[in-house]
Amino acid sequence: MEPVQGENKRDCWTVAFGNAYNQEERVVCAGYDNGDIKLFDLRNMSLRWETNIKNGVCSLEFDRKDISMNKLVATSLEGKFHVFDMRTQHPTKGFASVSEKAHKSTVWQVRHLPQNRELFLTAGGAGSLHLWKYEYPIQRSKKDSEGVEMGVAGSVSLLQNVTLSTQPISSLDWSPDKRGLCICSSFDQMVRVLIVTKLHKI
User: Fold this and answer.
1) Most buried among 105, 122, 148, 172, using CB within 10 Å?
2) Are 130 and 79 a contacting pair, CB within 8 Å?
3) Which of 70, 71, 134 is closest to 102 using CA atoms?
4) Which residues of 135-164 are buried (b: 16+ CB within 10 A; e: fewer)?
């Protein structure tokens, strides 16, 4: 997948699979250095949707890969992340989204909790981890002035944060077996194993 001849070629920084709810459906989402986010339909190899979040896209993740598209989180330079509601696509406005200023520096990574897809962890360039919860709106879609369905974004709230290092946390992952167990690596050449407690009460 690359731009057609004559178009500018941007650096692709991150990719994520999603929408794999059966044997045929597949999408891949790509984030670029100029803030572009492009959603490609792998079934017919076409561009399904694109937007721009104004800063380089460092990490992308669907809340689940193996279900119909539900939510997509995109993190970026300058400390912001965006949550897109992927259930309803408007022909011109695309997907509804909410953005949040999360860290005071680059948000390097995002990872959803395997046991609860409404919770996700972001890793920042200042050595901190932030745990967030996404709240759905009362109605996830509404009709615009022309009667076309459009999505409605929810809200995000910060549950907890911790500073682990003076260096950026570059990678993190949750355990699929033990709720709350996670691991992260940072530029201070350290790998840290962490446990987040009381997640079952959220």
Assistant:
1) 122
2) no
3) 134
4) eeeeeeeeeeeeeeebbbbbebeeeeeeeb
Spatial distance between the Cα atoms of 195 and 149, rounded to a whole number of angstroms: 41
In the sheet that 190-195 helps form, which strands lie side by side, from edge to edge?
169-174, 181-186, 190-195
Pull the structure tokens for residue 186: 């940072």
Q: Is 185 helix (H, G, I), strand (E, B) or coil?
A: strand
Ordered alpha helix ranges (H), the chain: none
CA distances from 139 to 53, 110, 146 (A): 25, 26, 18
Q: How far apart are CA 200 and CA 62, in angstroms?
A: 21
User: Helix (H, G, I), strand (E, B), or coil: what is residue 79?
Assistant: helix
Amino acid at 152: V
Reported as a single tens digit per residue, the pLDDT across 121-170 is 999 999 999 999 999 999 999 988 888 999 999 999 999 999 999 999 99
pLDDT digits (tens, 9 = 90+) for 7-22: 888 999 999 999 999 9
Q: Could you tell me which residues are beta bridge partners of residue 1?
A: none
What is the rounded CA–CA span in Å between residue 169 and residue 144?
41
**In the block, residue with structure tokens 């890969």:** 65
CB atoms under 10 Å from CB of 65, counted, come to: 15
